[in-house]
Amino acid sequence: MRKAWRRALARTVLAWGGGAAIVAAATAAETGAADAAAHEPAAAPAAISAYGAAAPVQPAAAGTPALVSVVRGQGQSAPVNSTLPVAPMVKVMDNLGIGVPGVQVQFRVVNGGGSITGIYARTNAQGIARVGSWTLGPVAGRQRLSASTPGLPEAVVAANALAQGPRLMAPEASDHQMAPVGAVLPRVPAVFVLDAAGRPVAGVPVTFAPGQGGRVARLSVVSDANGRAAPGAWTLGPGQGLQTLSVSASGYAGLDLVATALPAGAPTLVREVVLRGVYEVWDMAFAPGGVMLYTERGRGLWALLPGGERRLLFKPADFVTATNSGMLGVALDPDFAANRRVFVFMASNAAGVPDNRVVRVRVKPDWSGVEARKDIVTGIAFQNRKGLEGEHSGGALAFVGTDLIISSGDLREGTVPQDVRSLGGKVLRVDREGRPAAAARAPVGGDERIWVTGVRNPQGLAVQPGTQRPYLIEHGPGDNDEVTPLRAGNGGWDPRPRPLGGATARCPDGQALSYCGYAGSNMTDTALYPAALPPAWRSGLPARGTGGGSFVSGAAWKDWDGALVIGQLSGRRLLVLQLDAGGNAVRAATPLLQDVETRLRNVAQGPDGALYISTSSDNNRSDRRTQVWRLVPR
Hints:
The protein is mainly β. 4% of the residues lie in helices and 40% in strands. The radius of gyration is 25 Å and the shape is globular. The protein starts with a helix and ends with a strand.
């Protein structure tokens, strides 16, 4: 089946531009404007306003500065020598993630030859400091700005400078390659010499300068009749992490190609673009015959057919969408080949007031639509509060045998995660009809479909091959995202003020709110819940907006066979988590694709063994075009 699926997807990749073009548009240029927020919890001020006390209470004083983090302006694209539309901002935080006011921050151009105004700034009451403006320099490609304060690691803001006039341009396939340290990259790097009108120029000497101890076959090459110059094989240097190949030619704007040197024993990886112009792909699943099902949060359930045709399968009249809600998780019935059943997690107004629900449909044999709809779980909590509509819905689905696992979010409501009568802030376990599964083991007095209580905004579920153990992938508050191996129990998330029910209850940072999810609550509160499920991995400070994930398996993945790969939004990278023998801890974590500087929402391994990755718009905008990539181990 994998061979047939690989052939079918190869046709799809070609149909949607997976091959190298002479002058491919840079991926970063397609990601749109800068973030309006650092990651998913960025709307925290709205929560404070909505849940604030009648009389304002001053928050507890911040502690010693511990971290400088970018909160606005990352990953912008603009022409060389132009001013970026969004001035970058950083936040200085203490160890609890609380902003520290009055700290002097220095901004400095790292590379690219640009200029800034407002070199020095002091953090405001929320710990935020902003550069006045950043004008990019004359060097096309990546340019960087650092923000630093004494004694702390600097934060780096990256931008993409788009070339104008005579320039060098790299095809997409030449950039962002990945291979183990000391290995030869799978594709020969190349650039095209272009005049101001974008026409190829022959006979131009082009110089290549590898960094970090790497080497290329030829350091100088003359462009051919097509304007192409290639230095032969690029061998990476001995150190892990990002490595560069600087390319220059007299009279032309130069550029840097970037590659990632992976640990020894990791696979060599090739990235291809499978889909362009999609809208916030939230989840993906794979059917026989080379068909990929995917959900667009604001546009319904789709099928990508062999050859590249996209078909809308399911967007019913009762479908609604807002922020973290809409058409989210998708899972195929374990017996899909026989019954063609598909399950989706979606928001609906069929009951008059919006709720989240799990809907089962049957896909027509010709992939023209669906039939036989049955809403098997309804009444999953949905945030209807004005200004917060659709927040924190969770929405991941996965099968363990014939049991369907469903994650739901806390809605940014303090009482929801530990309320055993609510289906919000939980992991549910049901059969294919929506009835409680035998393994659910609901808490005393709780809904019988509940398997795990006390979770926050879990947007990912991944089932470990072999053991069939499900792992929950969870957005954290300011301090921690988590990956947790699941069993019946309590996840330990309780964002209510303390003491519980007390008239003088306060959040950990001192604020009088009913939801402490952005005010110092511990992600897994073992003080209140000593038996809380322990996570196998935490992001640490700050949270990275972790979305979905997938286990990868197969000999082609080498030492990463059996690893869990997760996508991060504000982190703008994949993270490969290699678990210990028991699956309860992470023994190694390797970042991927951080040099692409794109928000990555979800990942799923296809039947061809490759990893499929959906990119995300800023702030989950359903009207912004995004992509689906394919990462192939060689």
